[in-house]
Records
---
Amino acid sequence: MNATVHIIGAGLAGLSAALKLTARGHSVVVHEATAFAGGRCRSYHDAAVGLTIDNGNHLLLSGNHAALAYLRDIGAADRLVGPSHAEFPFVDLGSGERWTLRFNDGRLPWWIFDAKRRVPGTRVLDYLPLVRLLRAAPGQAVGEVITCDGVLYKRLVEPLLLAALNIDPPQGAARLASAVIRETLAAGGRACRPLIAREGLGSTLIEPALSHLQQRGAVLRLEHQLRALRFAAERVEALDFGGETIALAEDDAVVLAVPPYVAAPLVKDLTVPTEFRAIVNAHFRIAPPADMPQILGVLNGTVEWIFAFPGRVSVTISAGDRLIDGARDVLAKTIWSEVAAATGLPAELPPWQIVRERRATFAATPAQDAKRPGAATRWRNLALAGDWTDTGLPATIEGAIRSGNRAADVIAGPP
Ligand SMILES: Cc1cc2nc3c(=O)[nH]c(=O)nc-3n(C[C@H](O)[C@H](O)[C@H](O)COP(=O)(O)OP(=O)(O)OC[C@H]3O[C@@H](n4cnc5c(N)ncnc54)[C@H](O)[C@@H]3O)c2cc1C
């Protein structure tokens, strides 16, 4: 049997590292500070709406290949649902216009040449500047590479990049925007199908992973918060959990898969992102209209995306820092009035819950992006994972899972 790997943090980064390492014969112990696995990607029962809800609506795209491989590994790929082609219905609350963006499946973007498929009010040439984003220099912000104005920006580029980077796009790192466009729009409609965990994040991404890990002999220790790492010259020699210290054998290793503000005080001289952006989600207990799409993009409102779930309608607002401190009931009413206008649901406010994640993601600016460390450290048995490590992607499920996979390779060597 191979050595034991201790994984600190049971978010998607920690769980993906655990899956890779157990698959390669390592014995794994996952230590999680809270009473549940999943981290920022979790489901829980909410008394206000009387339903199991997700901390936030999470959208995946069919081009998120590491996330889809993770789901296949845990036998849950069929729990993500979405349309068979890349379609994005939108409503503009300002003008009342509605349209559906329809990308064609292949790589050649002929949807741009079809006025019925492309963004209404745009011309073919409007799309050319997007190529500039693909070639952006390191350190540039999106606003330095393309003009953040005009119909195409407002109706496609802004909603896409705001959702993917969780930052007002002009401030966003062009390198990250470029990675998103390269792996989605530029890869063709087959990579852009929107996918959601219809039955919830927990039963799709987390619980099946925990069952698989258990079957492979891994141990999950909840409410087991790492307080300190003890370092020898070249390696971590012990893990300090407060009441308990675990000494590491010569070949044992550690994957630190905690948020950056937890990792920094644990590891000497570690540079990490220090600024964050919020995401606000609202959940309403009401059956969505039968003809409502699973995801509806909203322009010119507070609301950005409306999701239809069984018995529930939920809303996502990215870079929602401006909404963090306001009165919750006022926000719920504003959001619901927009949802009612967009979906035709009754104006009366249904039971609701608002979840405001203050530090949902690191702020995807060029300066913060430059602070992301790689997976390897100067200690031979310590690897870092997390959506904030230098994955080349914004803080997403795909990035978190790739970071876990990469940390596993650092510890175990390439597969
Ligand atoms: C509201 C919201 C909406 C989002 N929407 C999307 C989306 O639509 N699409 C998408 O791809 N991504 C989305 N994301 C981002 C996605 O959720 C994250 O990128 C991903 O979950 C991060 O996983 P992680 O493992 O890197 O970090 P985390 O999930 O933060 O996991 C870190 C874990 O470490 C634990 N921990 C902390 N300190 C200690 C300690 N000392 N000892 C032991 N354990 C510790 C924490 O409790 C946590 O469980 C969203 C995030 C939020 C918050």
---
Amino acid sequence: MREQLVAYFQAHQKLVESSALQMILDSTRPLDLSRELIELAGDGSPFVTREMVEGLMGRATLSAARSAARADPGPEPEGYALIAEGFQVGSPGRLPLQAYGELFQSRYRALSRMLRSSPELSGARPVSELRRSEGRASLIGMVREVHQTQEKRHLVLTLEDDSGAVELLVPRDTDAARVPFLVDEVVGVVVQLPREKDRLPRVVSALRPEVVLGRSPRRSPSRTRALFLSDLHIGSKSFLAAEWAALVEFLHGRGPDPELAKEIQHVVIAGDLVDGIGIYPNQERDLAIGDVFEQYAELGRRLRELPSRLSIVVVPGNHDAVCPAEPQPALPPSIRASLPENVHSVSNPSTFSLEGVVVEAYHGRSFDDLIPAIPGASYARPTEVMKRMLAMRHLAPIYGGRTPLAPLARDGLVIDPSPDILVTGHAHTFGVDQYRGVLLLNASTWQAETEYQKMRNISPVPAYGAVVDLRDLSVTTVDCQGGEAHVRTGA
Ligand SMILES: [Fe+2]
Ligand SMILES: [Fe+2]
């Protein structure tokens, strides 16, 4: 953890005093604290001091007391360490508009700090100063609007920061225009200023925050594997009971490759644990269990079928019985109580390490906004969209679409630190891919196609599990389609 923290501070151009580092290491949430310290130090200071840690810890005691009342995550599994939960209790009593203002400022601060570390953007100026500059200039802003000019189909991009907004021209067929700009993402641009003041500054290049390349890989020293699953939809008539039974047999070493099964120590489930109630029109017709508490009781029974040596981390999804606004909190104690002891329940999204490997787990509701916004994107290939998430360093940037965003003071959907594995669900398909050294998984589903999905033209790829060797991040697929487990290397 010490090396991880030092590297984290270095990635943010901060030097940390050794006594300060020790205090951070001794705290319950080292990474959360580090994040706040980087924020506190701001762009002005390269140092993180002991006094700064003490100041923050004083405040932290208060928020810890508040969040202790929130949920019971269950005991921490061995080899597991929580790094950060997306959901944090905000300061109460703020007006909603003010709260959204704080959310976007938090996003802008976090992502512009990452962008500023690239040499092209180190001299980025506030938007309001742009008109006074000449030649080339760089700026960092949040995308407010994008539209096409009628005749020549160039893009006109409106970027915004604390100081104001500016319209920029992105000529079509240039590199900068090739990657579509998404509303509310934070980008850096180098612009050429026009001599004639009535013309728009022209974008020469556009940069995303991007995951850090060339990180030293974090790997498990021991022969340990993690199984990634998603979208169980317990309580749905379409839950694939025979396929689930095949998975249970496999994990108990009574299927193919019992040696491999024995090495699995961790299970991660990326949301939609149950089917829920009232999630879409006429859902009751598709339900085998019409009571949501009964659905979680059944989930508890299903998870007890798995070997008890496994530690299981669960995040909620849009079908689960927690507030739908993201980041979503962990399951409430009343529901957590029906799940076995070896289940650890955290918020959606959450960042945690398994045997030293950093996992970012996010259900993936934002696919519903990102897929329509990115030309060529589809539910059949969610990992392509996940690459965009990593480039943007944000899981759900678009505000006002299908993904409700919670008005919290800190944007918990920013991707920080760069993970080793990004896992999502929600798309009900199976995808394994890589991006800049990050393993991408879309972890299938245990629900057959529903009428609702047929209507929406989503064809699921159910009953797959991704088994990741935590020593080298190689993937083995467990395919339980047809109620019989098959194991194969790769996707
Ligand atoms: Fe789902
Ligand atoms: Fe979902």
---
Amino acid sequence: MVKVALPDGSTLSVADGITAMQLAEQIGRGLAKAAVAAKINGQLRDLSVSIDSDTTVQIVTPKDEDGLEVMRHSCAHIMAEAICSIWPAAKLVYGPVVTDGFYYDIDLDEPIRPADFQRIEQKMQEIIDSDRPFIRKEMSKAEALEKLAGDKYKLDNINRADSDIISFYSHGDGFEDLCRGPHLPGTGKIGGFKVMSVAGAYWHGDPTQKMLQRVYGTAWPTKKELDDYLHRLEEAKKRDHRVLGKQLDLFSFNEAGPGFAFIHAKGTVIWNQVVNFLRDKNIKYGYNEIRTPIILNEELWHKSGHWDNYKENMYFSEIDGVGYAVKPMNCPGGCLVYKTRQHSYREFPMRVAEFGMVHRHEASGVMHGLFRVRQFTQDDAHIYCTPNQIESEIIGVIDLIFEVYRAFGFEDFLIELSTMPIKHIGSDEIWEVATNALKDALAHKNIEYKINAGDGAFYGPKIDFHIKDCLQRSWQLGTIQLDFSMPQRFELVYTDVDNTDKHPVMIHRAVLGSFERFIGILIEHYAGNLPLWLSPEQVRILSISEKTNDYAKIVQDKLNDASLRCSCDLSDEKVNAKIAKAHSEKLPFMLVVGPKEAQSDTVNVRIQGVKETKTVDVDEFLRIAKQKIADKEIELAF
Ligand SMILES: [Zn+2]
Ligand SMILES: [Zn+2]
């Protein structure tokens, strides 16, 4: 008998040599049915693996991220078989999982076209319906090299493998593929799948190599989850901030500066609302705001380490024969401000914010509207403190971050803590103090988080904050990063209680990350129907005829006086056309005014997304709108 420790803390005694699948059956039939793989002693393995010593086992199902990946990767094998059965000349290169799916790189002279997807899917469905088992076969590296002699792609894969044992997986019908695994127990475990797209990709991403065909697919545990996913993609297309940005006249891009956003008047209103809100929060949480130059001497970037580690992404210039660089980060400038005077422990924690514009040269292929730009403004801040102030400072930043996200209507968060990587600076002791401070702060706030072991920056551990939008897409926004390096590089010091000079702990933090990107996320999350407080134009008054234009202007003056962003549509259009236009421009409130309203000092209110209209006094409407703006209320109905 061997002892198996399960994730719930219990221990099972089971027969020596039992397979992970048999163990799952012992635990429960439902679990065995859902099982796709097992984590044995922390390693993801096939369910056919036998357990022959005391160990920990977690039965993995598609509910686990790992399980979903096993399923998707197995589906890549199934797609590969389908493609090879249709095009016997196809050579398989590499088939990993990606977000929401997988791809397989194929070398085939004949192009695979979207029109071919259906027959690929048909063949895949046959393979899935026949529920063939995935079978693992192992051999030595030498044997594998001999077996695949002549297949340059697979030979390359074997030579890259770090193990001397090479494994192959077959799933019946003579189809076999070199792979590390693990895989599903059988092809029938795939509930819903779809071939999504095809694109060109160079072997190893190297433009001197042959262009391969990268076929993308997706796979889900059930047909329903597949349908939901496809629906979310459709929705995302409709909400594309690049399309809405143009339609609503919010921003544009120009060849004159690829990757540099031009924020138009309406976009600037949104921008200012977001910035002003963050500025208010900085005051509430005790930050002072500074501004530092965009272009700084090359020497500074040598000192900061950016020259050695980040040069390819920076912009350079020469002024009076001296080299300068455009800042990719705000921290070095902030350090220079810190150094302008002597500091004492008494003024710590010292919180310094900067809405800093940075430039980072991204490859042209990865740019994507406001989501991926080359120039953006960070809601940056640096906190200088002593080691024993770390925990309370982190708690303060966490409070600030959640307060901000909730105000924008985001309630679903994912938090990750990244710990000490192998290559790092700073003593193990300071890493432990810092990492524990981060953990304690998260525990103090009762926050669940995922640990990314060894994934911290070389200069310190960090916490990353992700939000989920209404389409369940995850966006990393905020970050809290401890830094033991920069205070040393810049010789930042403070005088401690014992009158000696010490390096402060430096905490970098951002709440939204980049204003540009966050505004893009807001546009997509709200499909352009921004909350009232963020709307570029909050109210439009639609006059029924020329006779009521004067009254419309009186109402507008009243609302403008109260700082509402409001205009009048006094055009010759019929009122229904005016309403349709305001609707398409995503106006939150439309006030229709005719002779009846003019006589009684009222307005007929149409609310975006609400069927019924309401007639209220102008003053009453003003009171309600102002209250909603002050409360940052997302619901418009009243
Ligand atoms: Zn595989
Ligand atoms: Zn920083």
---
Amino acid sequence: MAPSRSPLNRPSIVQAMTELLGPHAVETGDEQLKAASVDRFKKYTAVHGIYDGPIPAAIVYPESTADVAAILRFAEENLVNVVPRTGRTATEGGLETVVEDSLVVDGSRMNGLLSIDPYDMMATVQCGVGLQQLEDVLRPQGLTTGHSPQSKPLAQMGGLVATRSIGQFSTLYGGIEDMVVGLEAVFPGGKVARIKNVPRRAAGPDIRHVVIGSEGALCFITEVTVKLFRYQPENNQYFGFLVDHFSNGIAALRELITAGYRPSVCRVYSPEDARQHFADFYQGKNVVVLVAEGPKRIADATAEAIEELFARRPHEPVDSSRIQRWFENLNWGQDKIDAEKAAMLEHSHLGYTTEVSVDWSRVSDLFDAVMDRIRREFPRAGDLTMLGAHSSHSYQTGTNLYFVYDYTISTSPREEIEVYHKPLNAIIVEEALRLGGSMVHHHGIGKYRTPWVRQEHGSAYYLLSTLKQAFDPRGVMNAGTVFPLEPDAHGS
Ligand SMILES: Cc1cc2nc3c(=O)[nH]c(=O)nc-3n(C[C@H](O)[C@H](O)[C@H](O)COP(=O)(O)OP(=O)(O)OC[C@H]3O[C@@H](n4cnc5c(N)ncnc54)[C@H](O)[C@@H]3O)c2cc1C
């Protein structure tokens, strides 16, 4: 939590925004402002109506790049903290307004589909276009972005790029960083930068990566151009296998990936995690899920490799229709969010996740170390109703581990984050870093993994902190996100 550094008081900030954008673009309702002060990191306190952090001065809704530029010019001149947002599915505190009298800049009204080009295989959209909305237009034309995070029904393109998001079909299509061709972003002071669309270039470092993953802490993304792929679900082949040990499942994924195959979906679930997804068939075992996708001959070759691989490995097969059905109900829309809220209130019970990545050689060590430390060290281990993990995104050199933990809260709602969420998150992050992995695979640093950001980047941290100093010298973009709120002795 930080005081405002602005010479303007709250009413003057609201008045200035109203003059700049018009009253229809400025929201100051009490309930809306409270809800805008947090994200899903604080879902449990929020559902109890507890909002202890600073409440923003206003939520503003730009409708054009020029509006965004005007807001950021005003913010920089008047030292007003800006929190960009689009789909509001953030999980790591990236949307929290930790500075008094912040402006939440909501890009969801910038929802124009600017162009769909099936020849050069690109789509250009404004930041507030929902991924589902885009896919609903593309798929009837036989096209797809290939991006399919579980939050697809809600997340929007600005946030998806800002968080370096990744989807369920990542092993084939990559993460968002592999999909973005070019983009437009507005930097503090109102400077507009359009990074042009080219297939590849060697014109210096890749400046797209200054923006992708910046989590609203450097700029506001206004427009995104992504690649398009052929949409041919008729070729998809679904596979499920039960294996005795988590490490056996990981070894199978490693063999497949390092041999050069690219199943779009490539997952293994520990039994604890499998129970919540595959209760009717997992039999207390680890579940491997694979999908062969793409042009028919490629999908067939991938499917053949999967079958050969498991013919050589002890397993029990799962009927493919069960895996396909599971996929069809995997994504989270507003209905599941609402059901979760009701369940949290009724049962004082909730689940969170922490996702990290590590080389193949350390995956099993990481899994075992986290499970062991939580069971031994976490003082409220008795309140855990589930602790497990899955690997869901694999690479030539390693994979991610997505730890999942559910607990029943036996403290007051206000204490939930300090007593449960933070200590559990810390153990997973610490173990990932200890084993040479990354503390965050795809949800972003937000505001709750900043204590480890220097350790994450080591001697390269100065590259990251120099971006902040260069692009946001007055520190008005999403304070406390990516970069710790309190600067260190060197001011970085
Ligand atoms: C149920 C559920 C499932 C999820 N599944 C996945 C998954 O499979 N894969 C995955 O990667 N993530 C997943 N997430 C996390 C989340 O959906 C992603 O991080 C997503 O990319 C956020 O997009 P959004 O539009 O909701 O952004 P928001 O929540 O609005 O914002 C996210 C962050 O981006 C910044 N931001 C937003 N818009 C802009 C902009 N225009 N310019 C600059 N910065 C901006 C915000 O300040 C914030 O820091 C999941 C979340 C939920 C709740």
